[in-house]
Specification:
Length: 403
């Protein structure tokens, strides 16, 4: 598959050994003898012995169920970015298409398909880990925080508007059998209207699943309370339960802190007697970045560069459109080209600087004309010569406090 060697330690809160075994099982989904012999089936043999199905058959069924849990729902095009995790798993493993064929169907490059497939495999493994974590050594006992930090730093997040209500229900389905095994009732409260925020849905899903799994395994009694609410623009998730004697959340909190920092979420733990409550503040203000450039290819490139950041990207293809959008949006930053038909970038830069509404907006001039002195004299905040690199764009916006 070209995914490289197995990573040590933890991968997004899942033991790398378990993730590798899930990948092997997915590759052997329709090769029953090989699936029956794969390490995951052997490891879970004792867990599956009560079923009349062979371990390989039941494992196959549960792998397919995990894939289906990632479905964005009926009526959603399989080519949309937020459906890609499900589409990759379904087309490649369930329907048996090659990665080259899948990439063609989804309209993405083969390289992108391999990158996204890795994230998709991790999503499926997250759902299975919530069910089978108890069959492995306790994650708290084997957790290596330095390995997790290295793994988190390797991640390249992709932020998109995400329905938190759907995300929560997906996580609840993932831990449903675990709750039944422990005799735990999940009492869930959600608002009548769906709650959405800008986040990385893959990492966010893992945070919710891990938090719910921990609560179920460490709750005293038969109930865990889960409440999703929205305080203005700030969605909140509260998980409350009575703590079983001898349980600890220290390692869990450290692990979630690494993941939630990537999402720019805030997680807080409150203990009152024998009650424990985790509160997740699920959003921060997303920056607005306006890209003004008539080169569609470059605009797409810049959008891709910024997809890993907490920001909304807006575009304009002409100077006049850019002026209008800037006055309408009052963005946190503008990335401006110079060579455009009609009103060029130099004229637009002067107009933006003389307009009271946009005078203070930071402007990054990005052009093939290597004339930073002119750009700064007209009011540019930062000058970047083309061709522009991802690190240069992110460094420029970071220096402006945008990302």
């Amino acid at each position: 598959m070209g995914d490289g060697p197995e990573l040590p330690g933890m991968a997004n809160g899942i033991p790398a050994e378990f993730l590798e075994q899930v990948k092997q099982a997915l590759e052997k989904l329709y090769d029953f003898p090989a699936l029956q012999r794969c390490p995951l089936a052997k490891r879970l043999q004792s867990e599956l012995r009560q079923s009349r199905e062979a371990a390989g058959q039941q494992l196959r069924r549960q792998l397919i169920e995990a894939i289906e849990q990632l479905s964005p729902g009926s009526g959603v095009s399989f080519r949309l970015p937020h459906a890609r995790v499900y589409s990759l798993l379904h087309l490649h493993y369930v329907e048996g298409m090659t990665i080259q064929e899948v990439a063609y169907e989804l309209g993405i490059s083969e390289r992108q398909a391999y990158r996204d497939l890795r994230r998709a495999q991790e999503s499926a493994a997250t759902l299975l880990w919530a069910r089978y974590a108890h069959a492995f050594a306790p994650v708290e006992a084997t957790h290596d925080l330095s390995s997790l930090q290295a793994e988190v730093s390797r991640l390249r997040s992709t932020f998109s508007m995400t329905d938190l209500t759907v995300l929560l229900h997906n996580a609840l389905r993932a831990v449903d059998s675990l709750a039944a095994r422990h005799g735990i009732e999940l009492r869930v409260e959600t608002p009548s209207e769906h709650v959405s925020t800008l986040t990385d849905p893959v990492v966010a899903q893992q945070v919710l699943v891990r938090l719910l799994s921990h609560a179920i395994q460490n709750a005293q009694g038969n109930q865990v309370q889960v409440a999703l609410s929205s305080d203005g623009d700030m969605p909140l998730l509260r998980v409350r339960y009575t703590v079983r004697e001898g349980s600890s959340s220290d390692v869990l909190t450290a692990m979630l802190a690494e993941l939630t920092a990537r999402l720019k979420w805030d997680i807080r733990q409150a203990d009152a007697g024998d009650a424990c409550e985790f509160t997740l503040h699920l959003t921060t203000r997303a920056s607005k970045v306006l890209i003004i450039d008539d080169n569609e290819g470059l605009v797409e490139l810049l959008e891709r560069y910024l997809s890993s950041q907490m920001c909304h990207v807006f575009t304009a293809a002409t100077g006049q459109e850019g002026l209008e959008r800037a006055q309408e949006l009052i963005p946190d930053a503008i990335v401006l080209d110079v060579m455009m038909p009609g009103m060029d970038g130099w004229e637009l830069l002067q107009r933006l600087r003389t307009n009271p509404a946009t005078r203070a907006v930071p402007i990054v001039v990005c052009t093939v004309f290597n004339d930073p002195e002119l750009a700064y004299s007209l009011g540019a905040s930062i000058f970047l010569p083309k061709p522009v690199r991802r690190d240069d764009v992110l460094a420029a916006l970071k220096s402006l406090g945008i990302v």
